[in-house]
Amino acid sequence: MSRNPPNTAPEPIALIGMACIFPDAPDLQAFWNNILDGVDAVGDPVENWDAERYLADGRIKTPRGGWLKDLYRFDPREFGIMPNSMDGGEPDQYLALRVARDALADAGYLGHDAEHRDTGIILGHSTYLHRGQVTVIQHNIVLDQTMELLKAALPGLDAAAEAELRRALLAKLPPHCADTAPGLVPNVMTGRIANRLNLKGPNYLVDAACSSSLLAVSAAVDELRAGRSRMMIAGGVNASLPADVSTIFTQLGALSARGRVRPFEAGSDGTLLGEGLGMVVLKRLSDALADGDRIYAVLRGIGQASDGRGTGLLAPSVDGETLSIRRAYEHSGVDPATVGLIEAHGTGIPLGDKTEINALANVFGPRRGAGGSIAIGSVKSMISHCIPAAGVAGLIKTALALHHRVLPPTLCEQVNPELGLERTPLFVNTEAMPWIAPLGQPRRAGVDSFGFGGINTHAIVEQAPAAAARPPLLARW
Predict the structure, then answer these.
(1) Mean pLDDT, residues 436-463
(2) What is the dihedral of CA 287, 101, 36, 272, to 10 degrees?
(3) How far apart, in whole angstroms, are the C-alpha atoms of residue 182 and residue 192?
(4) For the CA atoms of 281, 287, 289, 295, what is the dihedral angle to 10 degrees?
(5) Rounded Cα–Cα distance for residues 118 and 34 (Å)
(6) Among candidates 184, 177, 240, 183, which has minimal Cα distance to 48?
(7) What is the pLDDT of residue 177?
(8) Hey, which residues does 19 pair with through a beta bridge?
(9) What CA dihedral angle connects 274, 259, 372 and 435, to 10 degrees?
């Protein structure tokens, strides 16, 4: 497929607002400061995660991950929600509502006078086990099974004692009633946001594993370019992550036994899972400029590709990843040679990291000169792998890097020589440094997000035009 000529390139999309909660980062300011300071926010989970039970029989190798811990903060009164309807529901939905509100506020479009007739929201979110679903299973399946086991073990149990036991077990469970029912339906996450923030555009979820949030952004971009919406919120959510998901990644051999995530590092032995959520507010660039919006960065395009048959359903594919990256540049008309930063998918899984480097090399070509010209890093080295929110974490990091004109650091002690980075234009950037761009050329970056099941995405992000390049609102850099 040939690259689009410049006059037919799709309209750029402006990022005019952002908000997030990631490990050790309750907001956007803290997230950026932690990145600049190289903060490793990976640690042990809260006590009731019950790690010892899973460690004792080898179901997991380590309980470490990027956990939100005490950052589960939500005041239902701010949103007109009854407090007694929250217990037993889905924490992800409430945190998502708060972050969506904060993203609109950051964009300057929160309040009774804000018109949201043509504003929608699309979020990446997984459909694996969550708190609301567990509540239903406990009430309607586990409780009955437990009572059957007790009756078999205690044949002399009379009806009164059985009823008392059942009441005692029920008292240990979260409430399960009509008030908590919305937490059982995944798409109520965006429905609740549209309801509380009075959004009248589309609202739905996208589940594409680790590619979910970038594909949600891509769908939101399509809404804007088609003229169906004037403003969109997009991102990803991965909170209240249960230990059960870690057991699956352990079975796959994907979790780090040493308990840390170090993409591209010699000796890296896998990834760790994390909680977090982030959202961006998007408009067509022409509308954002006309409305006088502050613009963090500009999305030029997002490429997508599936692996096809590939090498296996869960194995990464050089061909599939390469195709997604190529499509992004061909469809947008952007020259890959103008990119100065790659925010990699970079999970720390050796095969995945090597596959990604090979795919990038296929598009960006061989190294020219003694040093690399494209900085590469992965926010997972600091917050771990937030699965459906991983892509938006990288997008927010990249937008802030462009906004502040900084090449952000990644955590890596010694680059893995088996990656062959010296043959590519890529270099692992471990220190924050000013981002110097050639005269007259905008700073540009690529963001990778590759999902289980063979769905690959690559976004191209560019610095805001001079007309919208206001001084950064954040204090650092």
Answers:
(1) 94
(2) -120
(3) 9
(4) 10
(5) 35
(6) 240
(7) 75
(8) 279
(9) 50
DSSP 292-319: T---SEEEEEEEEEE-TT-S-SSS--HH
What does the block give as tokens for 106? 């950051």
pLDDT tens digits for range 160-182: 999 999 999 999 888 887 767 77
Prediction pTM value: 0.92
Burial class (CB in 10 A: 0-12, 13-18, 19+), 226: exposed
Per-residue confidence (pLDDT) for residue 48, from 0 to 100: 82
How far is residue 24's CA from residue 11's CA, in Å, rounded to a whole number? 36
Between the CA of residue 405 and those of 201, 318, 472, what are the distances in Å? 34, 31, 10
Tell me: the pLDDT tens digits for 247-295? 989 998 999 999 999 999 999 999 999 999 999 999 999 999 999 999 9
Alpha carbons within 13 angstroms on the beta-carbon side of residue 66 total: 32
Taking each helix axis from N to C terminus, what angle separates 350-364 and 318-332, rounded to the nearest 10 degrees? 40
Q: Which of 76, 139, 312, 325 is nearest to 214 (CA)?
A: 325
Report the C-alpha gap between 287 and 12 in whole angstroms.
11
Delineate the domains of the chain, giving CATH numbers in brackets. Answer: 14-127+186-465 (3.40.47.10), 133-179 (no CATH)
